[in-house]
Structure to design on (280 residues):
């Protein structure tokens, strides 16, 4: 992602995780909005036909990087280490990598769910679950940070992007083109109109709003659309690679990937609680 995108699409200090973060904190990465079922025609080895272990493992790896990032941020918040999450290019780039990896996997999961023939009821049930978690994050952040509470963070972006991206799962090549356009527009264009509080969830703003987590639809929806095309490419051209990853993936990593929403919601309160107890 470009420097301009970072300035407009990044949470200021790069804080990721729960609403239990510090005032300077910013939240980022989140789990994929859909599960990753696979049709019987593309099942891998002895895996259940509704899962692809390789995708779960990738999501689990993304969860691990998120936890590492949050651990470093929390240690900095408690003044145990010193790190600049607002300006240090390493931490800014690390955050963008985590956000991008999760949103790409949202798109991959959408395509795999389509190939598996997921029912509308199951799709909307999953959307409702992630949406409920997004509302919980908003409510919790309002209690904790009433002046900078989260209005459109990573979970909100996942919900809206999944709904808007679902019609394009049948057209992965078109999704790639639209996705690239969305990324370029979101990075390159800033319009003062979108600085209004009720419009800045779209993106295209000229400055980042005061909020603990900010993942606007543009450019990040484009990353989800690119993920749809990657999901198609993996199933059509790289099944052998998915099989290798599936065989090599440890069970604990795939477990993390399958329960990524749960891990996202609970890991930060746990880590902050432990540091409060140990650090006083």
């Amino acid at each position: 992602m470009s420097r301009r995108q970072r300035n407009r699409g990044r949470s200021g200090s790069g804080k990721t995780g729960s609403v239990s973060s510090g005032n300077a904190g910013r939240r980022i990465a989140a789990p994929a909005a859909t599960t990753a079922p696979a049709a019987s025609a593309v099942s891998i080895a002895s895996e259940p036909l509704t899962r692809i272990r390789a995708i779960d493992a990738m999501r689990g790896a993304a969860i691990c990087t998120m936890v590492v990032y949050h651990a470093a941020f929390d240690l900095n918040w408690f003044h145990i280490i010193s790190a600049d999450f607002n300006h240090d290019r390493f931490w800014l780039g690390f955050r963008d990598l985590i956000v991008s990896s999760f949103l790409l996997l949202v798109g991959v999961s959408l395509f795999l769910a389509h190939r598996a023939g997921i029912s509308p009821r199951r799709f909307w049930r999953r959307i409702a679950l992630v949406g409920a978690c997004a509302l919980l994050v908003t409510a919790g952040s309002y209690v904790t940070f009433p002046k900078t509470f989260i209005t459109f963070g990573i979970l909100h972006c996942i919900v809206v992007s999944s709904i808007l991206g679902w019609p394009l799962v049948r057209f992965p090549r078109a999704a790639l083109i639209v996705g690239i356009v969305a990324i370029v527009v979101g990075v390159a264009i800033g319009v003062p109109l979108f600085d209004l509080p009720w419009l800045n969830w779209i993106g295209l703003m000229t400055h980042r709003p005061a909020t603990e987590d900010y993942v606007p639809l543009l450019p990040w929806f484009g990353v989800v659309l690119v993920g749809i095309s990657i999901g198609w490419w993996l199933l059509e051209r790289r099944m052998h690679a998915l099989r290798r990853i599936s065989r090599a993936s440890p069970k604990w990593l795939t477990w993390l990937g399958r329960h990524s929403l749960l891990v996202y919601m609970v890991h930060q309160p746990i880590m902050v609680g432990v540091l409060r107890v140990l650090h006083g």
